[in-house]
Structure formats: structure tokens, C-alpha cells
Write the C-alpha cells for this entry.
Amino acid sequence: MIDAALAAVGGAAGAFSRFAHLGSGTSLPGRLVNRIDPGFLARRAASLDQGAVIVSGTNGKTTTASMLRSILQAQGLAVAANTSGANLPGGVVSAFLGARQGADVGVLEVDEGVLPSVVAEVLPRLLVLTNVFRDQLDRFPEPEGVAARLRIAAERLPADSILVANADDPLLWASLEDLGPVGFSVLAPPDGGATPRGRGGAGAPAIAADAEPESCLRCGTGLVFTRRTMAGLGSAHCEGCGWTSTIGRYVARLVSRAGLEASVLELCEELLTLPLGGIHNAYNAVAAVAVAAELGIAPHRATSALEMFHPRFGRAEELLFDDRQLWLALIKNPAGAGTVIRDVCTDRRVGAVVVAISDNDADGRDVSWIWDADFERLVQLEAPIVAGGTRAAETAVRLKYAGRIPDVVETDPLAAVRAAIISCPPDGVIAILATYTAMLDVREALVGDRSTRVEDDIA
Amino acid sequence: MGADLVIVHLYPDLLRTYGDRGNVLALQRRAEWRGFRVDVVAVSRGERVPRGAGVVLLGGGTDRVQEALGPDLRDRGPELAEAVGEGTVVLGVCGGYQFLGNLYVSADGVSTEGLGLIEAETRAGKGRLVGRVGATAELWGNRFDLVGFENHGGRTTLGPGARPLARVRMGGGNNGLDGSEGAVRGSVVGTYLHGPVFPLNPQFADGILKRALSPVTGGDDLQSLDDGPEERAHEHARTLHR
């Protein structure tokens, strides 16, 4: 009874937040409920028959959680989930607002910073960690510090809980391998990766733009990569102390990629056409399938659910606006931006690009990272480019030094998208690469709603 | 060979947490746009800094990486001092700036010797100084406005042999107390500002370039560039709050 009343209070507050344009409307009600009843989250999590899964890490949280939800729902389970990337404590609580009491299982996406305390409250049946990249440096100055927080969270798991982690991430894996995690990996044919650079001369600086600083967690010696899928992920060993990474128990092999639209994966011996491009989505898919398998769902059941997968929020999403096809992707750090840029550059339909960089708290206020993202590759596209977001002016400077002054610089999201539409050939797709709040702003301008309407899908 | 300017990026594989690559790119492009031939050379552990480098850039890294780099970097003391003696410009940003000083004292009281190229000491402070910075800089006789973003736990105090690069009107700067930001001693310059600092502050970049190119130009002023995008980004950054 009390929980139902709290859920109602939360729902009203969410409507108010959306109306007042405070956010996507998913965090305020949860914050309110947390204030009124700090035990709400623990109690509701404990009431789930099949327990809760928590998804955390730098990149891929939302998509991995969303894929996992699709897999679980396809098995007929009722899922309670926070589905809009609202992953601070308020947003996590929102998973249980409006959810009918009869949810079987929880899928909670949780921010790295608050993970230890949320794990201690929720006591999940399984924790899956995607990766650790440089991200929001003003909040998390050191990736090693984030890895240490993830480890603290993993140590707080109940004894019979399962830990699943990315075995291709040397920083993450080395920080928790002694806890006996179940690993996942991606194998991909080499394709050049980031824009290659010579050593000086007419080229750019002698380092791949989106490489992560890579050194052994144990001894600090630089790591040697023998296999690399993206940014700092792959197989590595340390020539200082001899540490060696491992291939995970669950492996996705990238058979072919087809730009923005799809990729073909061989996943646990199942062939899967994933309706999402990009090697990062291969990681998200293998993570989701690994979790499902550890929960007892056969891989072929999980992969057939993923064949139907549609992203619900703009990590990568297609929209129609003025009869034009738009493709939205979230970029927030060099690693993720690099894979998105690679997808955009390999898709022939792209006729114009918007790069929208904002620096609100949720984006990370220090936008230095755009100088480590591979915009050198993006400007080689022949399509016109529009710089947008609250830091449109700085984005224009970044693109200029990458080799091309953008055609339009426009902070207003609607005007930026319209400028791209005008410059785009009639049958071309407009690719929009945006940071988190820039994405919300674009969605509001185009769809008229900061909310993503995915709350309707809970339970 | 035959480059007008050699830019050395020290430890680009390890000290590159805050877009430091953008500083290299800005210097390189701004020299090339003026018709100079530029070589960018990456120098990592165990490799020597080439003689005759115009600029050596040293970025910031995580504490763990900086600790691991310590021995290699300290071995470079004589090499870098010699380069500075021959007129090489050395720029340290954030952690790289701290390395240029005499001493770093960590939160648990452990002292680490720096390169001693700037008379400065850094001690770990309580909490980090994080946020946007606005300042007025004076470098080798030129005054200009400076914008950027700082994020550091160390508090740096300058000795009498170094002068601040800038005075902050917004932000913590060297130590959050005396209003100073960065340091200059001869051709050695340190700053806490990333952004990265050169693309957003073309006057700063050109001040460094002018000095680094002086063996080729005789110290003449550099030809002006069309800095429309840079100036608009700089002006926009000036309007932002902390």
C-alpha cells in the first residue's frame, strides 16, 4: 500500500519535471521517493522473484541493459528497469515507480560513481561491468580510480552472486580478475582502426587519436597489444611484470559490418544479424548474451531476441523528421566517438553530419576529450558538417584543426538540424553525433519531448 | 630532416589524459599554415629528445602513470636542461607542469624530486580545484587573455626565480590562494589549463611558436592568420561561469 502511494507521488513529480523541462523526467520522482523512504529501493529489489541484474561501466551501459531487457522480455519475464540512461540513485529508484508489483526480474543501469552503494542496497544476483574509459574527467579524474570503485562494488556482491566483466579491457580485468569474474570478448578482423598517422612530417601527431593511455595496472609499464578491437580493448600483456590478459568465456566474432545499420556476429556458435552497427555494439551484445546465459537462458534464445532489438533511446537511433531520415548517436568520450565516427564513415547513405558538443554536468564539463577523438577521419567524408551544441564554437575549432572548417556553426539544435537537412542530398541520411544533453536538446527540438517515452515500457 | 620546427611530444602514449594532443596539433598546424615545415616527434620511455627541438610538450597523466614515469623523467633532467640552454621552449601542462618544478609532495607526505626547470613546489591539497578558468597572461612581454579548464589536486607555490604565467579572474590557478596561474622561467612555461589551451588561446600558441621559430625567423613577428573560429570560441569561453 505504502509503496503504491510512493510510486504515485513519484509519477506526479516526473510529470512535473518533464513539464518544467528540468530533465528527461526520470530522476526527480526517484530522488523524491529516496528522500521520503530511503529503504524503498532495497525493499523493491528484494521482492523480485528472480533478483536484479546491475549494469555498470563507462560505455555501453544503456544499450547493454536495453538488450538484456529485450532478451528477458522475450522469455516472457516482466522486467523492472530504468531505461533512459537515468542511472544515478534517483533514476535507479524510478525503475520501480509505475512498475507493477509483479515484476520478475530487475535490470538496473547504474552510474560508476554510485555503484558501490547501490550494489550494497540492491544485492543483485549478477553484476556486469562493460569497460573503463576516460570519461567525464571533471567527475572521474582517473580511470584507475573508476576501476577501483567498480572493484569495491564487486566485493560487495553477495557470495552467491555472479560477476561478469569485459575480458578485453586490461584495466578493468586486471583490477578484478582475482574475484573470479566470467569474461566476455570480441574478435574482429583488423580494419585499420583510428586514422593512421605517420611519425611527424606532413601528418598529424604520431599517435592514434583515440588510443587510451595504456599501462599495466600492476607495475605501470606500457602494455603491448597483440590484438585490438577498439580504443583500449583487445589482448595485451605487460613486458614489465608479465601480466597477460585473457579471452573471455563468451566470445562474439564480428563476421561482417555494414556501417550504421547492422553487423553480423557469430556469438556462442550462433550466427546473429544485429540491427546495430559498430564494434561497441558487438561488445554490448556479447555482454547481454553472457548475462542471459549465466541466468540460465540458452544463447540461441538470447540471440534470436537480439535480432529484433531496437534501441529505445538515442545511443543510436533512427528518426524521421520532415520526411528526412536522421540517425542519432551518443558520443561522450574518445573511445565511443571513434567507433561512431568509423560507422558514419563506412555508411554510404550519410549525406550530412551534425556534431553537437555540450558541456553541461551530465556531459562532463571539460570537453578536452574532443581533441583525442578521431575527427580527422570524420572530415574526410565528403558530406557537409554542422557544428552544434552549447560548445559549437569550440567544436568548430576542433574540426578546423582536424582539416575542415564546418559549413555551419549553430548552437540552436533545431537550426543546426535544419541546416544539415538543407545541405544534405534528398536521399541522404543526416547523421547526428551528440553528447548526452545535446542529444536531449535535439530530441526535444525534433520530437517535442525531452522525455523518451520509454517509461511506458517499464514492467 | 630539413624541418623548420621540430615539436617533441614527450610520452604521448602515457601523458595524454586531457586532450594534450590538441596542443601539439595547434602548434603544428599554425606553423604549417604559415609555410613552415614541421616535424612532430614522439619521444617515450628510453628514447632521447632529439637535438635542436624547437618545442618540447609534456602533458598530464593519472597519478599511477606519473609515478611509473618518474625515474625515466628524472633521468631527462640533464638532457632537458641542455635543450633549454640552447633555446628550446618547454611547455608543461597540469601534471607535466608539476614535473617541471623542484618538488612534488603527495597526500601521504612522500616527496618526489622534479626536473628543477622552474623554481616551484607542489603539494597535494585537500580536494581538487576543478572548473573553468579565466585569466590575464603575460608571456615574454605580451599580454593576452587566457581561458581553459583546470582539474588538479596539487597546490603549486612559485619561488623567487619563477614568475606566474597569468593572474586568474576566475578559477583556482596555482594554489587557489594567491591568484597566480602557471609559471614562466626563461623558455620554460607551465600551466594548469587544459581545454586544450593552445587551440582556444591562439595568442598563447603564437607566442610559443614565435620563440620556437626564432632560429629560422630571427625573432620576427609571425604572419597573422584568419583566426575567426578560434576567436569566436575564445570569446564564447569568456562568457562562461566557473
Q: What stands out?
A: Chain B touches chain A through 53 residues (CB under 8 Å). Helices of chain B lie at 21-32, 63-75, 77-85, 95-100, 197-200, 202-212, 214-217, 228-238. Residues 63-75 of chain B form the longest helix (13 residues).
